[in-house]
Design a protein that fits this description.
By secondary structure, this protein is α+β, with helices and mostly antiparallel strands. Helix content is about 55%, strand content about 10%. InterPro entries: Anoct_dimer (IPR032394), Anoctamin (IPR007632), Anoctamin_TM (IPR049452).
């Protein structure tokens, strides 16, 4: 085997990689140039080369062509220490599978490069007693089978150092580095190995070769089939165990084996499922409280004074309401909204106020407890002092570099693209503005539809001549029919715009040319979330804070675009419409996403197997690496869409929960499916992902914190402006004489009559005068607080109106300050890192200092002692002895 000195490697890689390879001044074997091709030995589940000794750490797939063969040879001539073995495909003779093995010396070298933390000694700190230990027999059925997935031993760890092997806890060299560690190191080398050097221009990295079509795939191996346990020796069958105890539908009630997930897929995948599982557990508490609030509203809908008065033939049946559109709309009786009023009482009651405050506190507890749990995982998964390496430029970035600029990290001049020019920034800003205008246009279009649909439903559902609509009229109001149809149309528009936004956001981010993958993901995350935020929530914000707020009164209505009369709320408010909107969008989104996540990968794999003939080849003994090749490749942005889906759901659960207390329960049910669907998808339908380090959920954490802060304001404003809660409270606690001479003390009787103003039908302007007969009535009622006709301040706002406005503003200020203060106190009282974890971190640092540093410090001190020092010490000792004899 040919050897290559570290200095030669540095010359070949150039100064750009000097920081990475500066401590590799040792002889390492170069890759085979080029390895010989071997025939498949027939062991379809093997994880080793044909010799059965060297483990397969990575797989590359390419077509056996002369042109590509030369590039492959050149590329691997620079990959230090990789041992290669090529095998032809069982299905397609053109395909070659290149198996890569990392030797022990190479693993040790790159473990030091990547600062991989490995065991130095078993954890000797005793566990603190917990109440859960005494009830473990109750929770045991909800955990994975301990006989199959055993709890891993706990160790104190330290960053690996090649020159101090004797201080690390090494039992077996073949098992010391886990398969995920080995794959990560192999991928690290492949991403930095050059394949073409022309003067000062270097082309390197497996990602660019994949984009150019030189390689068709690059992936680590699954260790077994997901549904059949491997009988091969040294096969841990971790994929099989994950499917049985995690991804299988029968295990939906079990806790997730997070340590095994992290061990098999890496910390980045593990932290996502840890966050999703923690979020789901916390949702259980919110769902129980929300369900209790819903049951309370359901039980009290028949006894509510407000709904009783609406349904009473002698009260609501005698109140004639003004038409809510021009000319063709008719007068209608208030008791026609009886059923809608009862449904409104389910969601608009005093329990909703308590639940909104509870959810504001719940959000704080969720984020604070997640920080603590995340700190525990950081310690257990050795990411406490995770140092991200200087990432190489993305191939797309490197291809468009035309200017030179000094790298502030390495101090070396590098090529930079044109993306910082003013014209590019202006173009990107215009693209963002176009997206915002498109969103606004969609909201306006839905609003116009609502106005037109309300006009149509008002003229149809309130036509007394159509007897066949009588059963429908009892349960469906024009407002409800308009809300349901508009919500369905809005959901379809949202799904269509999502596909457009996704492509535009990716296109804009590609145009920006972020230098590294992390910068690319952060930029895309911000764009996609902002687009999705406006897309999903714009209609909800419209109903909650715009609809019915500027409608004027029947004699002087307000028009949109000078043509469409603004939409009014039901006499009970717009809360029921907001509830309908949320339930349709949340439910539809959850169903659509789950179907899409299950069906699309399954259909793609089914089609691929059918076209490639792999199903036939499997019966003949298709090898492990070829079975994995026919699975779906993971997206370049990993679990981005899974995070985005859950964060949007988190917004629905927190931002508008005051109008829909069942939102946490729906989210809980969806997440129970989501965990298993995501687990099934990555375990059975996708190739094994390259393990990546991650200590947190990244850019999503500040987004969640922003949503939590915004949720307090939105829920307070929903209760104040969308719900009818504040006007009722003002009426209940009022001792003053209000419109029409009524005076009530701590009672809700007469509230309906008080909340509806009087309009003289003779005051209708000609352009809005109803064409329907008046049935000998002279006045009609409308929802507002205005003086009646004939008053000195006719149709102006009453004193009661200003009292209600003042009460709403006071409610918002008081509630926000109380909740924000509570959030601040909870954040201060709950430490981000548990005390036990702090102790373990201190103990680990101490052991690292003692074992790896102080011992070597003594050796260095001993070696630095000069012979003169030894002679001097001997002379002093001799003289001291003589003085003692003389005395």
């Amino acid at each position: 085997m040919e050897t290559m000195n570290g200095n030669d490697v540095l010359k070949m890689y150039g100064t750009m990689e000097e920081e990475v390879y500066e401590f590799q001044q040792v002889d390492l074997p170069a890759a085979h140039c080029f390895c010989s091709k071997v025939e498949f030995n027939g062991k379809k589940d093997t994880l080793f080369f044909n010799d059965g000794i060297r483990r397969i750490d990575f797989i590359l797939v390419y077509e056996d062509e002369d042109k590509k063969e030369m590039i492959v040879k050149t590329y691997f001539s620079s990959c230090m220490g990789m041992e290669l073995e090529a095998t032809r495909s069982v299905v397609d003779e053109k395909l070659m599978f290149l198996k890569i093995h990392m030797s022990w010396d190479v693993l040790c070298t790159y473990a030091e490069v990547l600062h991989i933390k490995v065991p130095i000694q078993p954890n000797d700190l005793s566990c603190r007693p917990s109440l859960w230990n005494y009830v473990s027999w109750v929770t045991k059925p909800f955990y994975p089978n301990e006989d199959l997935i055993r709890k891993e031993a706990e160790y104190f760890t330290a960053p690996f150092e090649k020159d101090r092997l004797e201080y690390f806890y090494i039992k077996d060299k073949d098992l010391f580095f886990t398969p995920s560690m080995r794959s990560r190191m192999a991928y690290y080398i492949l991403c930095r190995a050059p394949y073409e050097i022309r003067g000062n221009i270097k082309k390197f990295g497996i990602t660019k070769l994949l984009d150019g079509g030189v390689y068709k795939a690059a992936y680590p191996l699954h260790d077994s089939r997901f549904n059949v346990k491997s009988t091969e020796e040294d096969c841990p069958n971790e994929r099989y165990l994950l499917f049985q105890e995690w991804a299988h539908p029968k295990s939906f009630y079990k806790m997730q084996p997070l340590d095994l997930i992290r061990k098999y897929y890496g910390e980045k995948i593990g932290i996502y499922f840890a966050w999703l599982g923690f979020y789901t557990i916390m949702l259980t508490v919110a769902a129980v409280v929300g369900l209790g609030c819903f049951i309370y509203g359901y039980k009290t809908q028949e006894t509510s004074t407000w709904s009783k008065e609406v349904c009473d033939p002698d009260i609501g049946g005698q109140i004639v309401m003004c038409p809510q559109c021009d000319k063709h709309c008719k007068y209608w009786r208030l008791n026609s909204t009886c059923e809608a009023s009862k449904k409104l009482c389910i969601f608009d009651n005093f329990g909703t106020l308590v639940f909104a405050v509870f959810m504001s506190v719940w959000v704080t507890l969720f984020l604070e407890f997640w920080k603590r749990y995340q700190a525990e995982l950081e310690y257990e998964w050795d990411t406490v002092e995770f140092l991200e390496q200087e990432e190489p430029p993305r191939p797309e970035y490197e291809a468009k570099c035309i200017y030179e600029q000094k790298n502030p990290v390495t101090g070396v001049k590098e090529k930079v693209p044109y993306s910082t020019c003013g014209r590019c920034i202006l173009f990107i800003s215009l693209c963002h503005n176009f997206q915002i205008m498109l969103i606004i246009a969609s909201v306006v279009a839905i609003t116009i539809y609502r106005l037109a649909a309300f006009f149509a439903f008002s003229t149809t559902l309130r036509t007394e001549d159509l007897k066949e609509l009588e059963p429908l009229k009892e349960y469906v109001t024009p407002q409800m029919a308009t809300s349901v149809t508009a919500s369905l149309i809005n959901f379809v528009v949202i799904m269509i715009l999502n596909m457009l936004y996704e492509r535009v956001a990716i296109w804009i981010t590609d145009f920006e040319l972020p230098r590294t993958r992390t910068e690319y993901e952060n930029s895309l995350t911000l764009k996609m979330f902002l687009f999705q935020f406006v897309n999903y929530y714009s209609s909800c914000f419209y109903i909650a804070f715009a609809k019915g707020k500027a409608v004027g009164y029947p004699g002087q209505p307000v028009y949109l675009l000078g043509k469409y009369r603004n939409e009014e709320c039901d006499p009970g408010g717009c809360l029921i419409e907001l509830t309908t909107q949320l339930s349709i969008i949340m439910g539809g989104k959850a169903i659509w996403n789950n179907i899409q996540e299950v069906l699309l990968p399954w259909l793609k794999n089914l089609y691929a197997r059918h076209c490639s003939g792999q199903s036939i080849a499997t019966d003949k003994g298709c090898p492990r690496w070829e079975q994995d090749y026919h699975l779906q490749s993971i997206s370049k942005i990993g679990l981005f869409y899974e995070y985005l889906e859950m964060v949007i759901q988190f917004g629905f659960v927190t931002l508008f929960v005051a109008s829909f207390p069942l939102a946490p329960a729906l989210a809980l049910v969806n997440n129970l499916f989501e965990i298993r669907v995501d687990a099934w998808k990555i375990t059975t339908q996708f190739r094994r992902m390259v393990p990546e380090k991650a200590s947190t959920i990244g850019a999503w954490q500040p987004i969640l914190q922003g949503i939590a802060i915004l949720a307090v304001a939105t829920n307070a404003m929903i209760i104040a402006f969308t719900s009818d809660m504040i006007p009722r409270l003002v009426y209940y606690w009022s001792f003053s004489v209000y419109p029409y001479g009524q005076k009530y003390s701590h009672t809700m009787e007469g509230y309906i009559n008080s909340s509806l103003s009087i309009f003289n039908i003779s005051d209708f302007p000609e352009q809005s005068r109803p064409l329907s007969p008046t049935y000998n009535i002279t006045t009609c009622r409308y929802r507002d607080f205005r003086y009646p006709p004939g008053h000195t301040r006719e149709y102006e706002f009453t004193v009661y109106y200003w009292h209600v406005v003042a009460a709403k503003m006071a409610f918002i200020i008081v509630v926000e300050h109380i909740v924000y203060f509570t959030k601040f106190v909870l954040s201060y009282l709950i430490p981000d890192v548990p005390y036990a974890v702090k102790e373990q971190i201190k103990r680990e640092k101490y052991l690292t200092q003692v074992i790896l540093h102080e011992t070597n410090l003594k050796l260095v001190t001993k070696r630095l002692k000069s012979p003169e020092d030894e002679i001097t010490e001997g002379t002093i000792d001799h003289l001291s002895a003589e003085e003692g004899d003389f005395d």
